[in-house]
Amino acid sequence: MSSFIMAGGGTGGHIIPAIAVAKELRRRGHEPFFIGTKRGLEAKLIPQADLDIEWIEIGGLNRVSLAQRIKSVLQLPFSMLHVAAIIRSRKPKAVFSMGGYVAGPVVLAARIMSLPVVVMEPNAIPGMTNRRMGRHVARALINFPETARFFPEGRSELTGMPVRAEFFDLPPKPAGNTFTVLVTGGSQGSRTLNNAGRDSWPLFRAAGLPARFIHQTGTAQYEELARQFREAGVTGEVTPFINDMPAAFAAADVVVCRAGASTVSELAAAGKPSILVPFPFAADNHQQRNAEALAESGAARVILDNDMSGQRFFDEVTRLATSPDELREMAKKAREFAKPGAAERAADILEELAV
Which ranges in 134-188 belong to alpha helices (H)? Predict the structure, then answer.
């Protein structure tokens, strides 16, 4: 039985895949534990997953204010010393890092203490932490083939991202009389997708297209959009948060969403055609590269954030709803993009390094 550090926090995209790997390690009898901050999403998700976490203080350096960058730089040496003390106390065999600002001091301390680091890079273009520490990693597990160029030759492996088994288990959705559109901008919602969806509802009603909508709005615009949805007289549901996302995917003929790495991986696992609207302010514009990779495989359509409107939403959905052959081909290409077994492969590599 070995101990392993799981590093990565702040957002669900950094945390959820690491939880999947941690659970696989625990299933094998090991003791994984996280290092994170009390203000990141890890403070909620890690305890919910019944996993152990150690706390440090660190902030971001990328796309933050000058004051925050200065604060983060000043916090870094103290955070590294704290991580070093944790390593001496708990004697982990290796570090698994998803990147992000939380991983910075963990990976730096591990490097100084000669502890092997395995990184999982979910995006086509690595984040700042993984990019800067890339040459020092023992192994890089990647989601897109083109990401290999950021790591030393021979140290990267195309594993994909850990995705819940429920997505892989979804059967192909048979064509029906009603075309179901799932719209989700993530747990916080997307103002662009919310506004485009709202502006499309009168167009769908006027066209008489038998469409049904499942729209996750986030909390900020929920009340307003729920009222407008009722007034529009279209079919479906508007909700601030979808608790059972695999079930929502199962009901959908097409998914309209952002292009975070976890979302792209879930679309592939579920074999769902998609209309991707990359978040334009994502670090290094990685969402656009994620979206382009899926589109190049034939599984998705891409609309830039500035181009997304109610009319464009209506036009794209209508085109797919009336092109069943294209929709089936997109679903097939999405499935081909899927990479099962990522969590298991990550656990295999960590066990190899623990010997």
Answer: 165-168
Is the distance from CB of 97 to CB of 106 less than 8 angstroms? yes
The secondary structure element, H or E, covering residue 275 is strand 274-276
Each residue's pLDDT expressed in tens, for the chain with a length of 355 residues = 899 999 987 777 788 889 989 999 999 999 999 998 888 888 888 998 899 999 988 765 565 566 666 676 677 788 888 999 999 999 999 999 998 788 889 999 999 999 999 999 988 888 777 888 888 899 999 988 888 999 999 999 999 999 888 899 999 888 888 999 999 998 788 999 999 999 999 999 999 999 999 999 999 999 999 999 999 999 999 999 888 999 999 999 999 999 988 899 999 999 999 999 999 987 678 899 889 989 998 999 999 999 999 999 999 999 999 999 999 999 999 999 888 999 999 999 999 999 7
Helix (H) or strand (E) holding 222: helix 222-232
d(CA 311, CA 273): 20
CA 115 vs. chain centroid, Å, equals: 27
β-strands 300-302, 31-36: how paired? unpaired
CA distance 141 to 146: 12
Rounded to 5°, the CA angle 347-348-353 comes to 95
Delineate the domains of the chain, giving CATH numbers in brackets: 3-162+340-354 (3.40.50.2000), 167-337 (3.40.50.2000)
Which amino acid is residue 352, in one-letter code?
E
Q: Which two tokens stand for residue 62?
A: 């990328």
Q: How many CB atoms lie within 10 A of CB 99?
A: 27
